[in-house]
What we know:
By secondary structure, the chain is an alpha/beta fold. The chain folds into two domains: about 5-185 and about 365-380, Rossmann fold; about 200-365, 3-Layer(aba) Sandwich (Rossmann fold). Helix content is about 40%, strand content about 15%. The protein contains 15 helices and 13 strands. Strands 3-2-1-4-5-6-7 form a seven-stranded parallel sheet, sandwiched between helices. A six-stranded parallel sheet has the order 10-9-8-11-12-13, sandwiched between helices. Helix 1 (about 20-35) crosses helix 15, helix 2 (about 80-90) packs across helix 3 (about 100-115) and helix 4 (about 125-135) packs antiparallel against helix 5. The longest helix has 18 residues, at about 345-365. The radius of gyration is 21 Å and the shape is globular.
Amino acid sequence: MSAKNKPALLLVADTFPPKVDGTVRFIEEFVSRAKDEFRITALAPNFSGNKKLPIKTIFLPISKRIQPLPDYPTIKLSWSNLNKIKQAVKESDIVFVQGPALASLLALHYSKKYDKKSFFYLHVLPWELFEFSSSLPLRRLLAWLVKKMFLHSYNDVDNIIVPYSRLRDKLQEEGLNAKSAICHLGVDISRFKPTKNKTEIRKKLKLPLNKKIIGYVGRISPEKNIPTLFKAFRKLPGQKGLLLLLVGSGSKKEEAKFKKIPNCRITGFVDNVQEYLQAMDLFIMPSLTETTSLATLEAMSSGLPVLATKVGYIQDYLVSGHNGQFFPKRNSSILSMKMYHLLSDKISCQKLGENARRTAAYTFSWEKSIQRIKRVLKRES
């Protein structure tokens, strides 16, 4: 197909490389698998050290003062940014929004104004991010108002794409009337796989060879509930033989809580997440809110036993006693007890890890996921 005959797709995001999160990983996978079928232009915040993707990208300057949602910097509300968004929407056939901050909402506004086909992939639930990260009085009431605002915006979209059916059902009960499609995300099982030599991986990463490593991958932010993991870790006996490994980054305030703790290491953002997962013995996802949690799927694909809270899609693909275990939100005592039992039972750990790998390999595939999304975009446009 010639370039002129390809639909012009505007990919709107509120997070972008070099950041490392589930939305960014989806963007990278989508671009690599869809760039031959669409003329893709990205509209994204202008982070320091932005990593280039093989598509045209329009960068929007960000505000250094306003950030209502953690890890989603707001673009500057300027005439320059408004004109960039407006013009990009005008020149597109399809507007594919990743959400959940100002750039996405403005793109949806202009999509409706200029009668462009619009699609929104629901990567996060912004009202839950707001509720769990805000310290404002009446934050639950404010979160409810945020939900109503976003549901109103979603209903102006031609198609809302959600990662699992339970979420769509819940949103429809709460007022979502827009057409919707279910397209779950995937895992690169050739990249995220068990290692045959954990010792060599640890040597490469300069991690201790003779300690049990309990790990987490993701943002270090309030909604991820890292303090519960830390409290549980500190309750484990034999601290000298343990390491808590946090692969990710966050605000200086959040990171400072953990950096001075013995037997705790924070890596910051890294490009080789798969190697850090291969170095771990146990993976913990203590989050208060998730949609899919790609980090959990990637840990499972790496053959790790997983302990997670029962949130989002995790409660569907994680089966307690088969490929992982659950623990109650904010309950450090039960988490500590479960971590201790698994670390003490090599056979159970191995069984859970093997089944976790099978779940990821057989059920989740980027190729199938992106193909499904491309069909939705083409069918509705």
